[in-house]
Amino acid sequence: MKGIKKVREIFKSPSIQEFNPKEMDPSLNHQNDSEIEELIRQECLSVYHPVGTCKMGNELDCVVDQNLKVKGIESLRVADASIFPNIISGNTNATCNAVGAKCAELILKK
Ligand SMILES: Cc1cc2nc3c(=O)[nH]c(=O)nc-3n(C[C@H](O)[C@H](O)[C@H](O)COP(=O)(O)OP(=O)(O)OC[C@H]3O[C@@H](n4cnc5c(N)ncnc54)[C@H](O)[C@@H]3O)c2cc1C
Predict the structure, then answer these.
(1) CA of 64 relative to ligand 1 center, distance in Å
(2) Residue 49 catalytic?
(3) 83: exposed, middle or buried (C-beta count within 10 Å: 0-12, 13-18, 19+)?
(4) pLDDT per residue over 30-39, tens digit each?
(5) Pick from 13, 43, 53, 101: CA 20 to 30 A from residue 110's CA?
(6) Out of 5, 6, 12, 49, which one is annotated catalytic?
(7) Kindly report the CA angle at 21 between 16 and 23, in degrees rounded to 5?
(8) What tens digit of pLDDT does each residue of 73-93 get?
(9) Mutate which of 63, 86, 93, 103 to test ligand 1's pocket (most atoms within 8 Å of Cβ)?
């Protein structure tokens, strides 16, 4: 809700108004908090970027260590989005590539 309101505020600024923008979606039908909330509940989705099911770290619920090795199992590493401890704020694909490159480096170093 804060995001939608912030975008509307930005679009009211003179530098944007100069281009005479028209709001399409949400729209003028979604003005008060309950209308905006209803829209968010209808339209928002996660875009399917699941991460963290084999998270890396030192806590008990972590599956891999800092070398991407699965704890308690010999010769098994995980190198994908599942090792992210938390969802990142940016896109996940480049980060998965970085994890893969790091894993290759670790295997070659061994
Ligand atoms: C619709 C959509 C749009 C996206 N858009 C973007 C975007 O614009 N930018 C961005 O950065 N990220 C985007 N992502 C996210 C990004 O694609 C993923 O975060 C990334 O691909 C995850 O990589 P991964 O290696 O963890 O898993 P995956 O890429 O899912 O790789 C898993 C692989 O394991 C294979 N596999 C599964 N089970 C088995 C099995 N039992 N045996 C053998 N192989 C198996 C699968 O076939 C697959 O090849 C998008 C994702 C989706 C679904």
Answers:
(1) 19
(2) yes
(3) buried
(4) 889 999 999 9
(5) 53
(6) 49
(7) 120
(8) 999 999 999 999 998 988 899
(9) 93
Q: Are 37 and 1 in contact (CB under 8 A)?
A: yes
Residue 105 pLDDT: 97
Find, among 55, 59, 61, the residue nearest to 80 by Cα. 55
- Asked if residue 110 has pLDDT above 80, the reply is no
What length is written for the chain?
110
Burial of 76 (0-12, 13-18, 19+ CB in 10 A): exposed
Tell me the domain boundaries of the chain. 2-43, 47-110
- Measured in angstroms, how far is the CA atom of residue 44 from the centroid of ligand 1? 21
Cis peptide before 26 (omega within 30 of 0): yes
